[in-house]
Model the fold of this input.
Amino acid sequence: MTRHGRKYLEAAAKFDRQTNYSLEEAIELACSMSFAKFDETVDLAARLGVDPRHADQMVRGTVNLPHGTGREVRVLVFAKGEKEKEAKAAGADYVGSDDFVKKVQEGWLEFDAVVATPDMMGQVGKLGRVLGPRRLMPSPKTETVTFDVERVVKELKAGKIEFKVDRTANVHVPIGKRDFGKERLVENAKVFLDNLMRAKPVASKGRYLKSLTVSTTMGPGVKIDSTQITASLKG
Done:
């Protein structure tokens, strides 16, 4: 059982944890209960009506949040030659080939996103056991295996995020920082949710978006009316 501190419990006592709020109300409420001295990240957690054990019910994708996430994203690019120069010019933090493959194998993980050109995947594939569990393995599905290095690096640095359902059918994503304010956080949330709904697998039957919660890094989760979200996005 998780034990929470006094400030968390005081914040949780300020609202009805069983009530499903509108997206706008929930985000405003979650931010108002933020008590940390740093600018907390605001996260969305969605529980989906899918069975991730089946390949045809996997939910995965990327989305460009209009206001970014507020986080500094350190991008590692595996590339050679002209594509290496292109990656550096686009703002990648680390660019290389075999040298960086070896470095990662030795335990270096000072990066938040990984991009690789297709010709490098023979080498990068060796890092599956390291990058896979951390959701950092480049993939064509998320456009992180590509020769279009400049575009992808710029998008990642600007706040492009990847989302993927976990083994318990949940998806967690950051939608910005507390100091973004309600309006920008709501806009980011709506863009993400629209993409999440579009990613619904054909094999998924019944209710797809089962529940939705918003919270800050240290604060309690606030429930969002997922039926309202589903109806508004369909409309």
Remarks:
- The chain has a mean pLDDT of 91.
- The CA atoms of residues 64 and 155 lie 7 Å apart.
- The longest helix spans residues 182-198.
